[in-house]
Specification:
The protein is of the alpha/beta class. It is built from ten helices and twelve strands. The strands form two sheets. It has an eight-stranded mixed β-sheet, sandwiched between helices. A hairpin with a 5-residue loop joins strand 1 and strand 2. It is globular and about 70 Å long.
Length: 336
């Protein structure tokens, strides 16, 4: 084992180093002053290679969506660095970010809330082209028709409004809109969690087909282990603002090392009755601590069944094996 930072390869499209996002907590009545901070994200590092799906999974409130918003530069960064295609975009303003935003697009969680109900579907899909002044009206119309066919919708549906579509169809519209500017990276923030299970599978398969066809990279945010297992190449597990384990999908699911990852996997139900009956459980005590007042040492130690001496006083660093697998746990100390 050795200690190293992720994302040193030449094929990295996105690299995030020691990213922190803290929100101030104000108090003091008539003269408010800062009395603390919510450490939503605290020292997160990862990289995404071209054409791969990197997923961040964890419980609600662990900081995964805040991480995604920081990567998109839709959330101010407290500290750390974000590189996109070799350029440090951490402090770039709106004008400098404009060409980058063409290359990083987003699919949001709720297909019912993310589409303007007053706009027709064709206008929704074409809107990014208009904002970035791509082509004339005829070219945008042709591009919109091509995108609708690409995601499995009929071009003549362009004259309908969002309320005339099902949830799965609306998410296809969102995907078409995200692909309008031919991005390199698509951030999928809980992109299927609002859909029925059967529709989830269709959308996930569509995303994978589009990735293979267009060479897309995905930053996939989810709390659903079954979804992450289906679509991911590599996975990062977050707990209370920090990454506790990363690894390739099959390795992480077959041999999780961090006690929190083990507990997550043990809590996931199986559709197979025999596997469900044989499934072992890992009991976690208490509730996740508040990110406003995280515990000292390892943030998981108050709930960890394997906690011992140093866990309550020293914060473990990510210990890497190769370029993908890593764990932040005192059970796996760094070796010289």
């Amino acid at each position: 084992m050795n200690l190293q930072r992720p994302g040193q390869g030449d094929g990295d499209l996105l690299r995030v180093e020691d990213l922190s996002v803290h929100f101030p907590v104000m108090g003091g009545g008539l003269l408010p002053r800062r009395i603390g901070s919510v450490q939503a994200v605290d020292g997160v590092s990862f990289s995404i290679r071209r054409g791969e799906t990197f997923s961040i999974v964890g419980e609600s409130g662990c900081g995964k969506s805040t991480t995604a918003m920081a990567v998109l530069r839709m959330q101010a960064v407290t500290s750390g660095r974000i590189w996109f295609d070799g350029q440090d975009i951490t402090t770039w303003g709106p004008d400098a970010m404009r060409p980058v935003r063409r290359r990083i697009q987003t699919i949001f969680q709720d297909p019912y809330a993310s589409l303007n109900p007053r706009m027709k579907v064709g206008a929704i899909i074409a809107e990014p082209l208009e904002v970035h002044r791509v082509g004339d009206a005829d070219a945008r119309h042709r591009r919109t028709a091509d995108l609708m066919k690409l995601v499995g919708l009929l071009p003549d549906m362009a004259e309908r409004y969002p309320h005339e579509f099902s949830g799965g169809q609306r998410q296809r519209i969102s995907i078409a809109r995200a692909l309008a500017l031919e991005p390199d990276l698509v951030v999928c923030d809980e992109a299927v969690s609002a859909l029925d299970v059967s529709i989830q599978a269709q959308i996930l398969n569509l995303l994978m087909e589009l990735q293979e066809r267009l060479g897309l990279a995905y930053l996939f945010i989810s709390h659903d282990l079954s979804v992450v297992r289906h679509i991911s190449d590599r996975i990062a597990v977050m707990y209370l603002g920090r990454i506790v384990e990363t690894g390739r999908r099959d390795e992480l699911f077959s041999a999780p090392r961090h006690p929190y990852t083990q507990a997550l996997l043990a809590s996931a139900p199986s559709a197979d009755p025999a596997l469900e009956a044989a499934r072992s459980s890992v009991a976690l005590a208490g509730e996740p601590p508040s990110p406003r007042n995280p515990p000292p040492g390892c943030r998981f130690h108050p709930r960890c069944p394997a906690a011992f001496g140093p866990c309550s006083s020293r914060s473990p660093s990510l210990v890497f094996e190769g370029d993908s697998a890593a764990v932040a746990c005192h059970l796996f100390p760094p070796q010289a």
